[in-house]
What we know:
It holds the Pfam family Dyp_perox_C. The protein is α+β, with helices and mostly antiparallel strands.
Amino acid sequence: MAQAGTSRRDLLKGLGIGVGAGVASVIGAGQVAAAPMVGDAPKADADTSAQRVPFYGAHQAGIVNPRPAAGIIASFDIVATDLDQFETMMKLLTARIAFLTAGGAVAMRDPKLPPEDSGILGPDIAPDNLTVTVGLGDSFFEKTDWGKALKPNALDRMTQFPNDALDAALCHGDLSLQFCANTPDTAIHALRDIMKSLSEYLVMNWMMPGDVPQAKPAADGTTPSARNLLGFRDGSGNPDSTDEAKMRQVVWVTPENGEPGWALGGSYQVVRLIRNKVEHWDRTPLQEQERDFGRRKISGAPLDGGPNATERDVPDYSKDPEGKVTSFLSHIRRANPRTPETEANLILRRPFNYTSGALKNGQIDQGLIFICYQADLGMGFITVQSRLNGEAMEEYFKPFGGGYFFVLPGVSGPGDYLGSTLVSAARSL
Ligand SMILES: C=CC1=C(C)c2cc3[nH]c(cc4nc(cc5[nH]c(cc1n2)c(C)c5CCC(=O)O)C(CCC(=O)O)=C4C)c(C)c3C=C
Ligand SMILES: [Fe+2]
């Protein structure tokens, strides 16, 4: 007997007859595609699930490779402080990330036991562009004598800036995990896998899922920067992440930074959860919005560009010494005054938009998971944020969480593990 609810389409499919114009289509000789049902999974435009970011390398993945559409940032406390336990934990974490980012079949277990995998991706895990980037926070290093001795020089507990309203429950942590993937399901699957596999070592503090809106490529094949939840293109002024020499200067810890030897190839990660007052913003005149960011809303072009300027044009502040075109209070002029001296303060931004339900005051909780990477935390984020203190955009921004972490150097190959240089250095103390 046919199942209730599927009988009509199955019967029509069997007869090769469509349900009606626009809902069933001929897909081959004598075959008709069934009309989609309300419970059917949405169809992807293209199958990108096989896309894979290499896990092994001098640096961790998830920093200079392009952001996929989904992200999660999560902070944990590490229960293991003993060096041997820490090493075991890091080896396990490395093995899980190596598997999840490569993909593969889920092992079947005796049904009397809990299943090997959550099952949310089905029996085969696709790589889906997944990266998992691991950082260690100040509190981790401060727990032990070896940690204190080997802490990266600039790593500290994130302090409150003048416009912040930090919620202690959403700040700091011993370990950060940044998940990036083509789909939110892949990102959350990886988080759940790691939490289950490392449940005796990691306790979650806070997490925030986010996304990057997709954009169609332009006629010349380039893709514009994604828009944030204030409607502006976000990323135009980022240093070129495909320029390896630039990334060595801006992002990666090198011998010039004077950090402990084990940290070479790592990077400082800053996470800031920043609420956007979107209702207030949506009632702000366009010319004020553009003045306060310092860029055009539609094109992303700097304000000193002509009518055909694009987001890739570089503002020339030397021709605007009084700030008449691009205000001194504007976000981009404060963030990067583009003088020879401020070249040393460049950062690589990798933000995600977030939406998190309603606030108690009846407004939408939306904003930016601001994430940036730099070789020197003081010269990078802290200097840039200090310049931004008092900017015009403070009226619409409210930072409420986040933390500072040090992203470990990469894993050289299957015999290596995340944090191996730190463990060796600790053993040699
Ligand atoms: C301390 C660093 C920064 C914080 C925090 C920050 C928050 C923040 N930014 C936007 C939106 C935009 N930012 C843009 C540029 C930009 N922002 C920073 C730094 C911080 N932003 C820098 C260094 C720059 C580049 C400046 C330059 O080189 O010209 C822009 C313009 C487009 C772009 O370059 O990406 C937008 C838009 C939001 C919404 C936000 C917090 C919620
Ligand atoms: Fe910004």
